[in-house]
Write a structure and sequence with these properties.
By secondary structure, this protein is of the alpha/beta class. The chain has three domains: 197 residues, NAD(P)-binding Rossmann-like Domain (Rossmann fold, 3-Layer(aba) Sandwich), CATH 3.40.50.720; 87 residues, N-(1-d-carboxylethyl)-l-norvaline Dehydrogenase, domain 2 (Orthogonal Bundle); 135 residues, 3-Layer(aba) Sandwich (Rossmann fold). Helix content is 41%, strand content 15%. Strands 3-2-1-4-5-6 form a six-stranded parallel β-sheet, with helices on both faces. α5 links the parallel β4 and β5. α1 packs across α3, α10 crosses α12 and α12 runs antiparallel to α13. The chain is globular, with a radius of gyration of 24 Å. It starts with a strand and ends with a strand.
Length: 432
Amino acid sequence: MKLCMIGTGYVGLVSGVCFSDLGNDVICVDNDKKKIENLKKGIIPIYEPGLSELVKKNYRAKRLSFTSNISDAIKKSNIIFICVGTPTKKGSNAADLSQIFTVAKEISKHIKSSKIIINKSTVPVTTGDEVEKIIAKKIKKKLFSVVSNPEFLREGEAIRDFIYPDRIIIGTSNKKTNKILESLYSPLISKGAKYINTSRRGAELIKYASNAFLATKISFINEIANLSEKTNVNVEDVSIGMGLDKRIGGRFLRAGPAYGGSCFPKDTRAIVDTGSKFKTNLSIIKSVIKSNQNRSKLLLERVLKIMKNKIKNKKISFLGVTFKANTDDMRESSSLKMIPYLAKKGAKITYYDPTGYKKEFKKIKNVFSASNIKEACNDADLIIIHTEWNDFKSLNFKNLNKKRSFIIYDMRNILSKKKINDKKIKYYSIGR
């Protein structure tokens, strides 16, 4: 099939590349001409394992192309995916849908034949209705259908999530459109993916409800970790015991820093805003947001306690600063609160992340980026394992740090207490 992906951010690029790898002809469109030229050269704007190889493979095979000419891309495609950002509006919980509506207006200018327009972006309930209204101002409804088809891609696992999805959600009441999309996704359905056809509004809400529930699981286990520390219980035992209950499941029950990234923070806020518009009090989700906002503060209090409030002129090393492993995404990462706070207290911060230097810390005094783990940890008074990169799971900290004694605060519980049997190393973790 001939597909067009409008927006080459995380969702648009990963989805477009994977669709081309399934044998479709895919045109990825973006108004950022420099990004497009880089993609043609095989330069990828995001860090995602395996993505670069797939881009090069399918570009060489001419199944995948990149352009800034949206008119040409729409004319050549049967199915058009809208994959632009929906960030939180400044000073509000609401999702900023300006990019969605701008693209919808642009699409309406170039439709000359029958098109399926799919909203892949995460959007509040009724957004599809609005997109349909915008396009219908210029184009007869019989020439197009608007569908909601939310993505469920995890950063760092996106390619696998696309190829082996738990479910494919298609929000449309148009039987012909549904049949075409079922055919598009048939290679994934044959591998076991559940194909669900629902209403357009239903698909929009499924995405938000899913993210809000996963955010709830993370905040829940973090609060249980707080209780575990006070009651001398290992939170990992609690997580395992809970996770074995099939009604609950073990995923997203790992205690750690606050949830971050591009999805959970903005999507929980957006669904609360939607609830408000429809006069529905989503009190549980509101509590989740508040709990998550307090998480970094609680962990910083623990840092101060561990250091006996002696922070000034101490060298504190952060291993990992992204919100999770296998991504370069810094959005809403706990490190964005922790590092400035500790630096302001007079600490000397050195961080190492496998994805390199972070411009977010550029203007903060006494914050330095290290080129390797050894450089980051050398002579550190406190080593904070912030992100669960595999690089950190089997480190010999004794060889990394020349100080006679130092402290490790493992915020991801990736190390074993038993393995650190050195009296010169004090080890702390989360909820155990």
